[in-house]
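# nightly structure sweep
# worker-07 picked up a monomer target from the shared queue
# config: single-sequence mode, recycle default, output format = structure tokens
# input follows
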Amino acid sequence: MSKKLTDGLTYDYLSAESAPTREDRIETCFAYGGSGHNLKEGIGNGCAKHNRRKFAQSGGCQLNLALGILSSFQNMAIILHGSLGCGSSHLSRSGLKKAAGASRNKKGSMDTVWIETNLDETDVISGGIEKLREAILYAETEYRPDAIIIASGCVPGIIGDDIDALSNELENQVSAKIVPVHCAGFKSKYVATGYDSAYHGLLKKLVDPRNRIHTTITDEIADANEKYLNSKTVNIFNVGSNSYGDEVELARLLKALDLNPRVLPLYANIDEISRISEAALNVSICATHDDYLLGHLKERFGTEYIIDTLPIGIKNTNRWLREIAKFFKLENEVEKLIALENAQLEEALEPFKEVLQGKTLFVGGGETRAFTTGEFFQSLGMKIVGVKSHNFDIFAVPMVDDVDKDDFVVSVAPGQPAEELNLLNRLRPDLYIGHSGANVWVAKLGIPTAPLFGQAFNFMGYSGAFELARKAVKSLQNTSLSKKLATNVALPLRQEWYESNPFDNIKDLEDVKQV
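# output follows
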């Protein structure tokens, strides 16, 4: 039975083979250009989600986002069921997992095993199921993983390969759990649907309460201790863009409230995933990433959850902590913690404020991270001239008002670097803070840049706020690289493009802001 949750969403999709697209499930927008106020109004009355581009330069892929989650799990083999080009990012993902696993002390786990079915023209006609069957049996006999994950791309989705039927057929022939994941990117223009695809498979096949060994004589003390520990356990749901330093910082703050933080599911093993229900509260640090998973855990196990804000900067870290403390009735304790942390951080930030005061900033990246980062730098005296979000949905609506009340430009665009460069060429901010891959384009305009996130850095919580401010100041004080790039490296865009409205490609859009 479906349950109505506090955020107004329903979660009853696990009986289906694949997760629904986010266009169908929540209010979404992936093409917009204008003011933050108009975007909020458009989402509220349902019109902004109908916007499209006449021409799309680039975009993300659901399969890549799903693989970002799936490839992090420990002791699992991944079969990429699709064409050869779909596996182009395997090498970087394997390197990332090794580095992330080492920092988290995940020693002795199996390296990521990648197997591809490499579907060709013949398979498009005759089907690729037999290739997939061979790959599953090979993975079992050669590697003996805890689970075999089938990441099915666009080609199987088009030709109709029934990966679920094959999984059901083989599940009693192999010791590993077989996890079908449907990631046909052509089904949704909303790339974050890939997160839902990964978690759909995880919820159906891997999230089960662990089997307990029943004994004749029960250990009442051990059972009571475990029940007490679970009553104080908080699952912090990590994301691919956070670092181990972020996890340590957020866990530190919850331990200060005498809670038991547990970070998952990325980089977890099958036992840790199976015990995901053994907690009093599930806490998101990114609604775009987590809402599908946390909603189903609430429906299935009754575990309460919080999806509110991303703990970046002072205001949003305070808010994140207060919401958790409220659940455990620790309001007095959390206020003492916040007062202590804020006082120390404010003192440490004073030298940075002198450099940042009055400077202009443009932030580009995922919706929650972009808006919370913008709010933090605004609190340090910077002027936010624009935000570029990969997507925009109901979870980001409250965050718009946290940024400057004056109209600032909002661009909603997955990818679309030419559109963003046109906008930045007009706004000319003093600093650009952006998502991985975007900064190199922006630097060629002569605009100093700083990273929005990084696996080796701490960006969340109070220590993360200090690190964010330090990096911004460092970028503003050393602009020689961006100046030299602008002088010596040309961008592949004509002058006529810079003179046009950057949002002309967006159709069904009313009241486009001229910038």
